[in-house]
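User: Can you help me understand a structure? I only have the sequence.
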Amino acid sequence: MKNAPPVEHRIVVLQGGLDLVTPSLSLPAGYVTDSQNFECSTDGGYAKVKGYERYDGRPSPSAAVVTTVEVMAFINIPSVNQTLTGATSGATGVIIAIGASFVALTKVVGTFTTTEVVQVGRNGHRHGDSHGVRA
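Assistant: Let's start by predicting it. Here is the structure, written out as tokens:
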């Protein structure tokens, strides 16, 4: 392309804000009419959304209480979303994460006792010497 015009570059500082009223061709440089995964920053300009949480009437995920149960040994490794039940205490919780020596639970009902056997379905697991709220 011998006769192509040279490419011109122009820096546009994105600091105007979200404008849903002004026609697009009338907006000054730096304003947006739509964005996805970005929001107006409190410091000016725009920032990537750090996260969002559903708002549909169900309980907020950030309000969930997470409890970790230390496990001495696994006979069979459980899966996320299975229910862990204490054989002695009858305490239950839904598994949301599994580590080498712990299981993270939510929706816990009751209190697990130390050194009790815990079960997932028919699979037994030894519960460790401590349990508590995960920080």
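Now, to help you interpret it: The first strand starts at residue 17 and ends at 18. Strands lie at 17-18, 31-32, 38-40, 46-48, 67-74, 83-86, 92-98, 102-109, 117-120, 123-133. Let me know which part you'd like to focus on.
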